[in-house]
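Not sure how to ask, but would you mind making up any protein sequence you like and the tokens describing how it folds?
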Amino acid sequence: MKRYCAAVLSVIFSVLSAFPVYAYKSDRHFEQTLLPENKQVYMTGEWGGTRDEIANEGVTFTSTFVCDVLGDVSGGMHQAGRFDSSTGWDINFDLEKLANIIGAQFHISGLWRTGNNLSKDIVGNVLVTSSIYGSEQFRFYEMFLEKTFLDNRVNARIGRIATGDDFGFSPLYWTYVSNSVDGCPISLPLNMFFPVYPTAVWGARIKANLSDDIYLTSGIYNADKEVGRQAAAGLDFSLRLSRGMAFAQEIAYAPNTSPDSKGMPGHYKAGIYYNGSTCRDLYSDINGAPYSITGLAQKKHIGNYNVYLHADQAVYHEEGTEDQGLTALAVTTIGPENINIYPFFIMSGLIYKGLIPERDEDLSAFEVVYIKWSDDIKRSQSNAGLTTQKYELMLEFTHKFMITKWMFLQPDLQYIIQPGGTGDIKDALVIGTRFGLTF
């Protein structure tokens, strides 16, 4: 294990020393500190001007690569490391430029993932250590048409989309390496079929700006979880309405987020997601008695739901800057105990942009996450003579070094208390790093 820790640290420092590091000065110009200055946004550059020419015609292409090297150095089921990676691509067609359809665009995307799951194989925890693990294959993702109306106050999207891209979502969650909040709280897709990257379904959503600070988002989705199976690779375009429909509604208040605002920005959201598919009771059988004692089939329910609340607020800005400083955030999800394995989830965190002097584009972050097992499932486990699962707690510390505009390195530390919820697995310490490129 000492050799593994040394290897991880060696990778971190060798990569840092092999690439240019830039200090983002107060005058907004990059100052070279190692290798020749490089202001380009993409690793592959502008393709001799071709990228800009294509964009001016209405087509933009983006591709990213992210990999995690993480290891359990103490506790868990045993000590070992795992690697996983995700390569994504997105192509957007501006239909206003291509076909003179005002405010319209068409978007497609896909990905390629490889690697193994440290949480399942080594640690034994529910709050997955890597947010890029899942669907290890070549996979098609989204395909949708989007259009704005009424002087850009209403935006509609229809096609193959994911609920997690619009509901229970915050870009701040992407700061963390753990999957506890990867785009949305992990409790939502764990409790029911809540489509998140890299699974898309047929659906539609509409967002309406009621004022500069308040907006409503509504969505409807096919609730057929079979479209996400590995064998389909994202290419099952069937619309099986008999499998159920899902609905989402969110209201948000976003003060000081317009370009001319002078105060510190924030986002406050409340939402509900309802999945109309059949689900099973975690305690009662078809007659209302404990199924774990009677051995009868579990009672069936039509529909399940979770409510979520999110808040993030900039609480400190460094003097003379627009975005350097500290942001606090928190999110919680709540659902019925009898049909949700995890009826209560809460995350709270802090993100500081530019904490290290002259490293103004770097991000430093901390989060603490708590997830609770249902009381009903604990009663069923107890009746069956099993060890009950109570809660899991995770703390994460991470720092994202922006080596260039298109490359980052992110050392990460996670401490997992009561992995798997039972107390039978020792608290685990996970360390490692994330590395990313934008092509």
In short: Helices lie at 2-18, 50-57, 95-99, 118-123, 187-191, 291-294, 375-383. Residues 2-438 form a domain with the Porin fold (CATH 2.40.160.180). The first helix runs from residue 2 to 18.
